[in-house]
Amino acid sequence: MVLSLVVLISGGGSNLRALLEASGDAEFPARVVAIGADRDADGLELGEEFGIPTFSVPFSSYPDRDAWGDALLEQIQQWQPDLTMLSGFMRLLPPRVVSALSPHLINTHPAYLPEFPGAHGVRDALAAGVTQTGASIIVVDNGVDDGPIVSQERVPVLPDDTQDSLHDRIKLVERRLLVQAVLDIANGHVDLKEHSPI
Ligand code: GAR
């Protein structure tokens, strides 16, 4: 089957770019049908570059989190995706959005969860002085980065690493993991229902 995907971003979307490049191969069993954001994210420009529709649902335009979430969900559901991926999406989804999409809702995270959850996974790993961190793909639940793990891989922390150098190396692993996760889900090798958090 060819999996249809909505990808949500908040930033530059370099991991999304990797997925779009992979899905440029006619054999790749997934297509990004829309790119969404919670702000005027730079990565929305990838929509134009790859000919994919985009939408933006700015958090600041809504009276509260639930109203914002409902508007976001409406946009996502218009595309009837098989899978929604958070790729650098830096805002917690309201529980009813998670319930509506789960377990077909995954997130990429730049740490070896459950180590270093939250918005600063790379900075926190460096600050903790660990010698290895990692990258993880998880199913989203109502907690902060604590849903069931789909896949993960270790990344060494080098003595002279800065936040940027470490994050760049983690992203290389993240990109491989997220492309493989999409492949595995599309091919039925990973059944997200078995990872259902709800
Ligand atoms: C990625 O490293 C992603 O894992 C992280 O944001 C980066 C987005 O980079 N997400 C989180 O930290 C979520 N907690 P990109 O916009 O260049 O793809």
From TrEMBL:
Gene Ontology CC annotations of this record: cytosol
Pathway of action: Purine metabolism; IMP biosynthesis via de novo pathway; N(2)-formyl-N(1)-(5-phospho-D-ribosyl)glycinamide from N(1)-(5-phospho-D-ribosyl)glycinamide (10-formyl THF route): step 1/1
Positions of the catalytic residues: 109 (proton donor)
Top-level division of the source organism's lineage: Bacteria
Record-level GO BP terms: 'de novo' IMP biosynthetic process
Protein residues bound to N(1)-(5-phospho-beta-D-ribosyl)glycinamide: 13-15
Reactions performed catalytically: N(1)-(5-phospho-beta-D-ribosyl)glycinamide + (6R)-10-formyltetrahydrofolate = N(2)-formyl-N(1)-(5-phospho-beta-D-ribosyl)glycinamide + (6S)-5,6,7,8-tetrahydrofolate + H(+)
UniProt keyword annotations, A-Z: Purine biosynthesis, Transferase
Gene3D superfamilies membership: Formyl transferase, N-terminal domain (3.40.50.170)
UniProt-annotated site: Raises pKa of active site His, residues: 145
A Pfam family annotated for this UniProt entry: Formyl_trans_N
EC number from the UniProt entry: 2.1.2.2
Domain spans labelled Formyl transferase N-terminal: 5-182
Family assignment from sequence similarity: Belongs to the GART family.
Functional summary from the UniProt entry: Catalyzes the transfer of a formyl group from 10-formyltetrahydrofolate to 5-phospho-ribosyl-glycinamide (GAR), producing 5-phospho-ribosyl-N-formylglycinamide (FGAR) and tetrahydrofolate.
Name by which UniProt lists this protein: Phosphoribosylglycinamide formyltransferase
Organism: Cryobacterium arcticum
Gene: purN
